[in-house]
């Protein structure tokens, strides 16, 4: 059996597939990621780049003590810290992680450059205003590990744990012995809660600590529809931003005795894009993993219904028995049109 280890990796909000910018990174002015605006671990799970059956990546905990681990194989559990929110997140485990030599790292860097992958990484760094000029400054440490995709055993989404959990000690530059999985904050089950918190113009949403400015148009529609639903169903039976499946939130929920209607608001100027984005979200909110949280699912946008979209939704209801509908929000009248499509 492989020796089990644990490693902290730099913060990332793109699922460690590409750099995500300075948000959540170390605030220490001497820290590498603070100086250059990224960490080399941000490509840890960029699994499009496979060489001879392996994905090559970088771990700072290995790079700091390369000679000590050269040639060894570990099962490594991963966690990360969002330095903006001071929250800690457990990612899961990668088995059979092989520590590679400096000479192999040099060969991998040459392959990346030959395949155009290195330039792709440079462009990704430019997108987040990071210092891309030193990406290959230490070619012998461009990659420190390799593993096969089949050996990835990560959570669907990172789960939060306490900073006081003794199972994990924050030690960025050292590979630690694995003790146990920390006590994780399990995903929230759907529990209806009425009420609506008005969002400011600078409202921020965190989805597993992903930071994004909320669409103000979305906020306006949500507030108008919430008030309209309250006038019809009573305020105690209407809720907004209702948690479900961890950090996901349902835009609007209406309670009707023991059944619920879920609403998802989309603001793209393409109706088809609104449907494409909203349908999988509503299905997850209502049915994941094997529950039935809602008996009606409604997509809201400012786009007028098209004959094709109307046929599509009817087809979904008839073919798959999915209770999914569309309602138009009239921006001129600031009102949700009653007709369901």
Molecular structure report:
Helices cover 26% and strands 28% of the residues. By secondary structure, it is α+β, with helices and mostly antiparallel strands. The strands form 3 sheets. Strands 1, 2, 3, 4, 5, 6 and 7 form a 7-stranded mixed β-sheet that branches. The longest helix is centred in the middle third of the chain and has 18 residues, at 216-233. Mean pLDDT is 91; it is low at 200-213.
Put the structure in a nutshell.
This protein is of the alpha+beta class and 341 residues long.
Q: Roughly how much helix do the residues carry, as a percent range?
A: 25-40%
Structural class, from helix and strand content?
Answer: alpha+beta
Mean pLDDT: 91
Bulk shape = elongated
Please describe the topology of this protein.
Layout: E1 3-9, H1 32-36, E2 55-57, H2 60-63, H3 66-69, E3 73-82, E4 87-99, H4 102-115, H5 117-127, E5 145-147, E6 152-161, E7 176-177, E8 204-207, E9 210-213, H6 216-233, E10 238-244, E11 248-256, E12 259-265, H7 271-287, E13 296-301, H8 307-320, E14 324-330, E15 335-336
Parallel strand pairs: 1-3, 12-13, 13-14
Antiparallel strand pairs: 1-7, 2-5, 3-4, 4-5, 4-6, 8-9, 10-11, 11-12, 14-15
Please name the defining characteristics of this protein:
26% helix, single chain, six-stranded mixed sheet, alpha+beta, seven-stranded mixed sheet, elongated, 341 residues
